Amino acid sequence: MGFYTQNLFSSFTSASSWFEVYAAFSTFTMLLRTAFIQLIPQQFRSFIVSKLESFFSKYQANSEIRLKINKFWDKNSGDRNELFDAAQEYLPTRIIHTYKSLKVGKLQGEKHIELAVYGSEDVVDEFEGTKFTWKLDEEGSKQDSNNHNKKYSFELTFNEKHREKALDLYIPHVIKTYEVMKAERRIVRIYSWLDDDWNDSELSHPATFDSLALSPELKKDIIDDLERFLRRKEHYKKVGKPWKRGYLLYGPPGTGKSSLIAAMANYLKFDVYDLELTSVYSNSDLMQSMKEASNRSIVVIEDIDCNEELHARSIGLSDDQDSDADNEAAKVKTSRFSLSGLLNYMDGLWSSGGEERIIIFTTNHKEKIDPALLRPGRMDMYIHLSYLKGKAFRVLASNYLDIEGDHPLFEEIDELLEKLQVTPAVVAEQLMRNEDPDDALEALVTFLKEMDKDSNCDLELRGTSE
């Protein structure tokens, strides 16, 4: 047997022997092809071809890469995945003419028609000759009709040979397109914390710095401070501080705190996150809400002096056994949310994941705020919004009555405003009662004189009682 194999192998060593083998194999292949075409029926041939194509397509599918894009990077940390937001906005604009499962509608308070990917249908996007397939996955119970309890994610699929193009070119292209879209639309949104999630709508407040009833000097100070903050990113990085700025707005009700916040958001094109502390149940809840807030945003905590959890921070156990129940209740309340949790966030321990953020606290009573919140580095600028005076009144006259320049009644109104404590909201309400500018100003003078008379009477009565 070994002798036979050796002779057979040696017979193939010549070139002519190799040619004979090739000729024989070619002839066999042609005969097999002819037999396949002539002897096998067309229908059966098509069946065989389809099975072969299916086999190789399945084999090819095994080389696909699937990327999971969740709304949050980690459900425990709560870090928001910007790629999810980018895909959500990017896909409808790219596939609106071909995709058959788009969700469309106009939400209350919105100015534009909204489009969103909907359903589980594959979405194919072509980028530089390469196809990328997207699918929206929905996690949660089908019986659950509450969308807030459902979790969504995108799945991006592409061939393995396009791995570098997907990671280095396509995904950055999606994010960059999303950023350009946001810049072009320049739509500011307002978010409210509810049921452990941010619920958003378009910020429709029209306030601008031009329309605010503030003194020109105060407006300039605020705008200069905002501009300085925006251009000092490298400075914050150099000194090792989070890139954030803290403002305290304080003054009587009706002096324009909410309007100033809206004007700042519209000026900067920053989204607003309105955090009601009564909806925050623990320090971890606060951390989660702040981590989910986007960069380039304004976090607003209103009426900070009215939060009972912050005032109860120093309540301790008493030696008096009769008050054990009250002390235990205080401990439970304090465990829900504490001043230290808020201070940690303001000091940057929890906000290090976000950049270019502004934190605004509002209060009607600055003297009631815990001093720990007011130290330098936490509140960078105090903005006192006080009662209406002459310069700020000119803005209201322009906004509500279209009066530019001077008016014969302005001097008398200025004198009355100097003596009285009247808010911009009260004066604005008076100006709206008449469409004619002269009638409106005359009615305002009458109103202010009545206020002045009443205040003098109150002073006289207090003097008599003393």
Automatic annotation (TrEMBL):
Is the keyword ATP-binding in the record?
yes
Q: Which InterPro entries match?
A: AAA+_ATPase (IPR003593), AAA_N_dom (IPR025753), At3g28540-like_C (IPR058017), ATPase_AAA_core (IPR003959), ATPase_AAA_CS (IPR003960), Mitochondrial_chaperone_BCS1 (IPR050747), P-loop_NTPase (IPR027417)
The EC designation for this entry is 3.6.1.3
GO biological process terms on file: response to stress
Q: Keywords, A to Z? A: ATP-binding, Hydrolase, Magnesium, Nucleotide-binding
Cofactors, names only: Mg(2+)
Gene3D superfamilies reported in the protein's UniProt record: 6.10.280.40, P-loop containing nucleotide triphosphate hydrolases
Q: Which PROSITE patterns match?
A: AAA
Where's the AAA+ ATPase domain?
A: 243-389
Q: What GO molecular-function term can you cite, just one?
A: ATP hydrolysis activity
Question: Which parts pass through the membrane?
Answer: none
Q: Which reaction does it catalyse?
A: ATP + H2O = ADP + phosphate + H(+)
Q: Which family does it belong to?
A: Belongs to the AAA ATPase family. BCS1 subfamily.
Protein name (record): AAA-ATPase
- Native species: Glycine soja (Wild soybean)
